Amino acid sequence: MKRCSTLPELLSLGNDADAAIGAPDQLDVTFKSLRTFITQTVAKLNSFGIGRNDRVAIVLDNGPEMALAFMAVASGATSAPLNISYRADEFQFYLDDLNAKAIIVKVGSESAAISVAEKLGVAIIDLHPTSECGAGTFTLSLRGSKKAKLKQGGWAKPDDVALILHTSGTTSRPKIVPLSQTNVCASAGNIAQTLAFTSKDRGLNIMPLFHIHGLIAGILAPLSAGAYVSCTPGFNALKFFSWMDQIKPTWYTAVPTMHQTILTRANNNQAIIQNNPLRFIRSSSSSMPMKVIEELEACFNAPLIESYGMTEASHQMASNLLPPAKRKPGTVGVASGPKMAIMDEDGKILGVGETGEIVIQGANVTKGYENNPKANAENFTNGWFRTGDQGTIDADGYVTITGRLKEIINRGGEKISPREVDEILMEHPAVLQVVTFAIPHEKLGEEVGAVVVLREGKSAEEKDIRTFAAQKLADFKVPKKIIFMDELPKGATGKLQRIGLAAKLGL
């Protein structure tokens, strides 16, 4: 598979006549049309005075327009996709922090981002959909007549910043992660290689496109292999199976909470599952309980490939492998792109089976956070990036994450991995989903708490679940407080939020 160092190069690989991008109930766009569209859009941005390394915030609904806007902007400028559901204060923070030169919004949009952009003096570009020309296609117009002076036009170069995202910032102010053309292309190539994509593959993207998982694994990786992607408006459990029937995907990628929701509706959709066999299912962004992996594989008769990614690595770092290669459920697989090692607090690389911090280095890894020397000093050691995750690497190179260093619960000096407690509680027959987290405690420092979602039609009391857990966990690991909820508290991308959960729940 050819390795690329810029987006225009990556998008040049698909066959002219093959379908590249589509959406439910919309016309497909071929690779030839996609390339023509991106060339025209970059020229249009240049005519507005926007060129290489100029930052363009994109505030659009999930779907094909968001996908095409991301790719077109990133081919000749710097793409900064933002969550459309942010409030004015959040847009104020992000647009200011990004130093955005322009913002793209759909014509007629009433997003709070528009008034914030006006206040900050950020150029506003209206997107006019042209779906009759194919899913996601559009034209752009600039509000007002004032055009900026173009510094550098044309196609992006390998070291230019393609994509700028913020870390989730659960423990501190979100950090700016600039990802170069080389970073995102390396990651897309790593994923395409891991999953053995070919032009025959068809993806169903249900991931949000303001997040690294959807942008790189959902969109760029398959396109880099000449494969097709259908861009849905985002995850919708009620529509997932009808989309599956219409699009006939060979794979999809999602976060565990989405997979679990799909599973609850799978029994009523067995005919669709059998008529549309998947080559594999992919999961990333947080850990997948073993029980759910087994149920998904049995239900879809397809392997679940769990992988491990983060924004700073342009998504993928490690992945389990497709059959017939050895898979080790419970691990996040082997290094799949970057080099990986385990490091102690003093920067020493540890041996096989030793527990420490997972560190990475490679072409897909950011060179550093923007304007944040303190974070760079803390997160980079001897050329390695510290992921903040605790884990081990076995003799075969398989990586097991034992916890997020900041999520580890410290109960009077006893260190507890919330993931370990999750796995045990998930074995209770009445439990559908669970998230274990730290509750502040005046004597012990922290105590163990858990939020539990019960299976439909099942019931359980707090004491039942605690008794069940006590048979399998040491006493100090058994949650002292269990809260029942209808759904788990999640961030905007569907990831579970352990850090700060106690405060959110008023504990």
What does it look like?
The protein is α/β, with parallel strands linked by helices and about 500 residues long. The protein contains 15 helices and 26 strands. The strands form 7 sheets. A 5-stranded mixed sheet has the order 4-3-5-6-7. A 5-stranded mixed sheet has the order 12-13-14-15-16. Helix 2 (about 30-45) packs across helix 3, helix 4 crosses helix 5 (about 110-120) and helix 9 (about 255-265) packs across helix 11 (about 290-300). Among the domains are: about 5-185, 3-Layer(aba) Sandwich (Rossmann fold); about 410-505, 2-Layer Sandwich (GMP Synthetase, Chain A, domain 3), CATH 3.30.300.30. The chain starts with 6 loop residues before the first helix and ends with a helix. The radius of gyration is 23 Å and the shape is globular.
